[in-house]
């Protein structure tokens, strides 16, 4: 029963006219799963419901077979790294983890061993005596993972974890997540497509509270096949293209522009190219917008 089963989940915050989540149904099985969506799509709301920090308005969730309403039991199975994670700045890394281990009821005789293992896993052994406030952004996020794993959860939920990390730390952090996904569910929420590309091929896309897509990255890319084009054109024509099409890439050299763009049908003089995952994601979003305009 190593799955998260979400059925017809909706959430409407008090005083808001539009629901933050709108009839979301989704099954997430073991391994890494990426949840993509732009700002305000509802990702954090879903994460907070799955971690029992917030409650749905309607719908049900079963996490590893446990109904989400059994909050204490669910919390034993879930580790969470929230957005903007930051805690106990004046404690050392070891003291902060020890404190959390106590809160998580880790037996005193296992605490030291568990914390040493976690520090090694997230590569922070050398920083055990460093104060949290002195860690770099990447180290802090790795400490965030360690704190989420203190109670050895079956499910790890991470919300926009790579924002603000430099490329090296971002890669390191993503590799860490894929390692952890080998024997548990890791749910990664992000609006950064390259984070998904580098870690998983199983995704869901949220937009304005609705699940627009769930499947593999290849399936998403297949939906955009035939809708991404490349063209070299005089720089003077670029603004006209920009007003008509979604440009996914542009390189300007002198008076010439090389562009990749999205269009619903073939364009004379433009060549069809295979969509990248980012372009497939943009195509999905723009198709949704066109449908809304038509309605
Ligand atoms: N506590 C709250 N009270 C009222 N509205 C909220 C609350 N939290 C979120 N919302 C609204 O719910 C919608 C979804 O927000 P949510 O934070 O879940 O999106 P998100 O995809 O995580 O976006 P971001 O990447 O910006 O965090 C937004 O319209 C947001 O304004």
TrEMBL record:
Similarity-based family: Belongs to the ABC transporter superfamily.
InterPro entries: AAA+_ATPase, ABC_transporter-like_ATP-bd, ABC_transporter-like_CS, P-loop_NTPase
Presence of the UniProt keyword Transport in the record: yes
All residue ranges annotated as the ABC transporter domain in the record: 4-233
Keywords recorded for this protein, A-Z: ATP-binding, Nucleotide-binding, Transport
Source organism phylogeny: Bacteria, Bacillati, Bacillota, Bacilli, Lactobacillales
Protein known as: Metal ion ABC transporter ATPase
Record GO terms (molecular function): ATP binding; ATP hydrolysis activity
